[in-house]
Amino acid sequence: MMEVRKHAHIGLILPTKFIKRDGSEMPFMLYKLEYILDKLGLSEQKEEILGVLFTSINIDEVIHADEMRKSFVQTLKDLEYTNEAQKYTDIFKENEVKWAKQTNPTDRLNRLQAQDPALVHENANKDSNVFNTQRDLTAGTVGKTLGLKMMPEHIAKAHLRGDIHYHDLDYTPWSPMTNCCLIDFKEMLTNGFKIGNAEVESPHSIQTATAQMAQIIANVASSQYGGCSADRVDEVLEPFAMRNYQKHIKEAKDYIDDPVKQKEFAKKRTKKDIYDAMQGLEYEINTLFSSQGQTPFTTLGFGLGTSWIAREIQKSILNIRIEGLGREKRTAIFPKLVFTIKKDLNLKPNDPNYDIKELAVKCATQRMYPDVLMYDKIKEITGSFKAPMGCRSFLQGWKDDKGKEVNSGRMNLGVVTVNLPRIALQSQGDVALFWSIFSERMKLAEDALVFKVKRTLDALPENAPILYQYGAFGKRLAATDSVNELFKHERATVSIGYIGLYEVGTYFFGPNWEKNQQAHDFTLEIVKKMKNYCDSWSSKYDYHFSVYSTPSESLTDRFCVLDTQKFGKIKDITDKEYYTNSFHYDVRKHPTPFEKLTFEMDYPKYASGGFIHYCEYPNLRQNPKALEAVWDWAYDKVGYLGTNTPIDHCYKCGFQGEFKATERGFECPDCGNHDPKTCDCVKRTCGYLGNPLQRPMVHGRHVEIASRAKNMTKGMVKEHD
């Protein structure tokens, strides 16, 4: 006999299980029927209707979706709510038509051809005007419709409703691709690899090494759909620059007798080689186009090397970024630079690499990058030190069967994000109901994530040789090996994302809840519970499930639009036209950097699968010490910190600073220029920078960027002068 439970509010005996039309089993949730009755204008008649409905259903049997729908309609008719019964039937049919359209490639291709902004501006890194991007968008549009048909129907419909977001639907599940990774450049550059028809041997100079890195990045980016990172790139490239130095020493001996001058000559030549190599890498990455129709999402992590060569690589990376790209010295969007600050290495003035930290501060005031990793805090939060995969995805500390710590060569298998504000809105202020719906969504997310993992297992090594057979993923598989050899035993991660903790707190505690301890504890408990679910799934499935603070480049818009359609405009929640990323402080407010980071610092402990903090600053070029003061204060408090500061530049009138947000995008506040050919407008889109004049973003993200208030006043900047 089926378990039953009594609903405390109206004294009903209810089923506990519900079988959806695709056969999936879910907990029975009464709030869904109550919501439908509210929408039908029958709020006052709930008890009457539900009482008759559940009296007519045999609860000793499993409740199926079709049976429930038919019984619900019949109950409305029996109680003479004929118009409402017809309205519900019409809505059901309308939703079936919408579902059919979403899984119809022709309908979505028509939207793409009509330049639907939701499609062409979904990814601010893709220029929808160029042929190769148009081809990728076309393929992705077809991939989305086919992917929705492939996945279990309850997951597909939850995605379309906006309960969850199944990320990267244009690539997966249609293709069994993986998400982001830390490329094992050391393995590949040491042992050689193959790309296409070319067998590539280990390089004999840093120039060749960086050229090979660019080719590896292009091929990896075409074989997965997420970002790719080079961890500790200064240390990886050091031995190849040493080969340059040794060659120059040999040259010097032919012309110079003095050993000291021989070394001076070789060092000078090697420094030039390093600069040229790193400049070449910067230009190559920014001119690459992967098969996905975009510049590869690339991150370079650096800052821990201590030799003169490693130091020179670090300085070259920063000086090249400061210099800018091309004749107009534009800000490079890629690669994302992530500089590591470490106590006793570069944190304080007496540390040996402090001069490089000063250069990093200068670079951030002029180009926003580098973002900074706090070495000790990253180890504490994630279990070991490593750079993020892509913009913010972090691997957990992991050792192989020989006890060796492994980071490079590992990967993430995908993300599914939960719409937290919707759960709050559906709960109607009932905290117990909030947690019930939350539990239901966690089960839904589990199903979706497990499906993601299972789909990646369908890949064969020959599908992506650069990843599986030539070292990018650390181990080299044979053609007959299972790709699971690289994923199992929690070597790979898979992530549940979240968005909108601010909106959840606002719904229950009001819009200014940031200093309310009860509200803070409630939102923190949400992330804690997500972490607990992930821990149990990791044990259950043998892959590492982690909580991920979703970047939400376009999801900030999508979820809010869907919830506005469902619940209407709600002050400080949906009326803003965007949802706040992850655990971030309300961007419209003016906390100091120290107040903002203090508020946010508790969340990454539980969201260790992906996180980043930002502070908004005025122009800091004339006083980089103000930024350094924040970095120093944050060292033992947060793990990963980004700098947002105005660096826009109009080449028509010479203005440098912050462009004005308008309905059509951004423009120079002095002359009104908004032509991307004659100005450079750089904004923090999410984890990466973007140029919204060259490649527009979705409406919600534009509004969010325009709403960002400064966390440091000009007066605070002068205090550090």
From TrEMBL:
PANTHER family per UniProt? ANAEROBIC RIBONUCLEOSIDE-TRIPHOSPHATE REDUCTASE
- Which ranges form a coiled coil? none
Q: Which residues carry this modification: Glycine radical?
A: G687
Identify the taxonomic lineage of the organism of origin.
Bacteria, Bacillati, Bacillota, Bacilli, Lactobacillales
EC number(s) per UniProt? 1.17.4.2
Give the CC-aspect GO terms: anaerobic ribonucleoside-triphosphate reductase complex
The protein's matches in Gene3D superfamilies, at most eight in alphabetical order, are given as: 3.20.70.20
SUPFAM superfamilies, per database record:
PFL-like glycyl radical enzymes
Q: Which residues form the Glycine radical domain?
A: 589-714
Provide the leader sequence positions: none
Task: Give the enzyme class.
Answer: oxidoreductase
What is the protein name stated in its UniProt record?
A: Anaerobic ribonucleoside-triphosphate reductase
Instruction: Write out the GO MF terms.
Output: ribonucleoside-diphosphate reductase activity, thioredoxin disulfide as acceptor; ribonucleoside-triphosphate reductase (thioredoxin) activity
Query: Looking at the keywords, is ATP-binding present?
Result: no
The record, for InterPro entries, names: Form_AcTrfase_GR_CS, Gly_radical, NrdD
Keyword Membrane found: no
GO:BP terms for this protein?
2'-deoxyribonucleotide biosynthetic process; DNA replication
Question: What is an example of a Pfam family matching this protein?
Answer: NRDD
Give the keywords, sorted.
Answer: Organic radical, Oxidoreductase
